[in-house]
UniProtKB/TrEMBL annotation:
Pfam families: Peripla_BP_6 (PF13458). Gene3D superfamilies: 3.40.50.2300. CDD domains: PBP1_ABC_RPA1789-like (cd06333). The keyword Signal applies. This is ABC transporter substrate-binding protein. Keywords: Amino-acid transport, Signal, Transport. Residues 21-357 form the Leucine-binding protein domain. GO terms for biological process: amino acid transport. The keyword Cell division does not apply. Residues 1-20 form the signal peptide.
């Protein structure tokens, strides 16, 4: 195993000794404000490449991973995507920890006809469908729908929203407003906060004092939702609080505090409840294998975001294996033909009109109880 670290760009090249190799590129936010997303994604990709090469690579060829840390900066992500294609000569790219960096990468990938698998949530990444762009997380629109399904079951008809103004928060806010009426629910209070805000009590007080509010939804990711959750507890708001899949990790519970997070509901993946999965659940073997490998390798708890990278690598290597060659167009065609592939996030089946390949059944509705994730359906 050869590892070269270029500290300026934080680029890591992992390759075997064989002369024939398949070069895969990645740009993730391993440092910076989105490091809670990109760090486990980078560690996952490194771990999976090492394991794959130890088992003969893909179709007998070693995998070379060229990994850059864009720090969550869309401009850096665009630069690295260009470098990956023009200088590093990769056949596909995984990455885009955030919506902003994903949009930058996909513009370069599409122009150069290189397959790109995004790790971010916003629906605009794959809607409308772009020929060479795919993604692994559920869309923000799907998260809204899953949350509203649960609210509908609880008889909730009027809600307040407090959304982050970052790319993910703004996109999910818009998507939720588009579909909320389909569930007989009305948004009667609508507040926002900036990613750098340290206190949201003013916005939450306005929501609490709005007549008719029965629950609160917080589209957002990063530290914002944790602050919202703590402020919610401090204000003793006696209403159900829903968060997005953008905070579906143990880190959210730690930042918010188990006491404040008690009762919070959100849509998550099978990975967060690995121990609760039925023995016949088709995702269980893959989820348990990834969880065990990641935690043994890193000494840290597994999370949803590393799982997105796991699934992207799985989709890509499965496609290359089926294509029988590492030609970008052949890989693209094979990714689009993915059928019934179990990952940590769901079971992927893609086609020309669907470059995500998941439906709402891939989401699990979760509730935090006693500092732990529990399944509520």
């Amino acid at each position: 195993m050869k590892t070269t670290l270029i500290t300026t760009a934080v680029a890591i090249c992992i390759a075997g000794a064989a002369s024939a190799e398949i070069r895969i590129g990645a740009s993730v936010s391993a440092t910076g404000p989105a490091a809670f997303l990109g760090d486990p994604e980078a560690k996952t990709l490194e771990m999976l490449v090492e394991a794959a090469n130890a088992n003969g690579g893909i179709n007998g060829e070693e995998i070379a991973l060229v990994l850059y840390d864009d720090g969550g900066d869309p401009n850096k992500a665009r630069t690295f995507a260009t470098r990956l294609i023009e200088d590093d000569e990769v056949v596909a790219i995984i990455g885009g920890s955030t919506t902003g960096t994903s949009m930058s990468i996909l513009s370069v990938a599409e122009d150069n006809e290189i397959p790109f698998i995004s790790l971010a949530g916003a629906i605009e990444i794959i809607d409308p469908v772009k020929p060479f762009t795919f993604k692994t997380p559920h869309t923000d629109r799907m998260a809204c729908q899953k949350i509203f399904e649960d609210m509908q079951k609880q008889g909730i008809t009027q809600i307040g929203m407090i959304s982050g103004t970052d790319g993910f928060g703004a996109s999910m806010q818009a998507q939720c407003k588009e579909v909320v009426g389909e569930y007989g629910i009305t948004v009667v209070a609508d507040e926002t906060y900036n990613p750098t805000d340290a206190d949201m009590t003013t916005q939450l007080t306005k929501i609490r004092n709005t007549d008719g509010v029965q629950a609160v939804l917080n589209p957002g990711f990063g530290q914002g939702p944790s602050i919202v959750t703590r402020n919610y507890k401090q204000l003793a708001v006696d209403l159900p609080l829903y968060q997005s899949h953008g905070v579906a990790s143990d880190g959210f519970i730690e930042l918010a505090g188990a006491d404040a997070a008690e009762g919070v509901r959100l849509p998550g993946t099978a990975l967060l409840i690995a121990g609760l999965l039925a023995d016949d659940d088709p995702q269980k073997p893959l989820v348990e294998a990834y969880k065990t490998a990641f935690e043994e390798k890193t000494g840290t708890s597994v999370g949803t975001f590393g799982g997105y990278a796991n699934d992207a690598f799985l989709i890509l290597t499965d496609a290359i294996t089926r294509a029988g060659e590492a030609d970008p167009t052949a890989i693209r065609d094979a990714i689009e033909a993915t059928e019934g592939l179990a990952g940590t996030t769901g079971i992927y089946s893609m086609n020309a009109e669907d470059h995500l390949g998941l439906d709402l059944s891939a989401f699990r509705m979760l509730e935090i109880k006693g500092g732990e994730w529990t399944l509520i359906e």
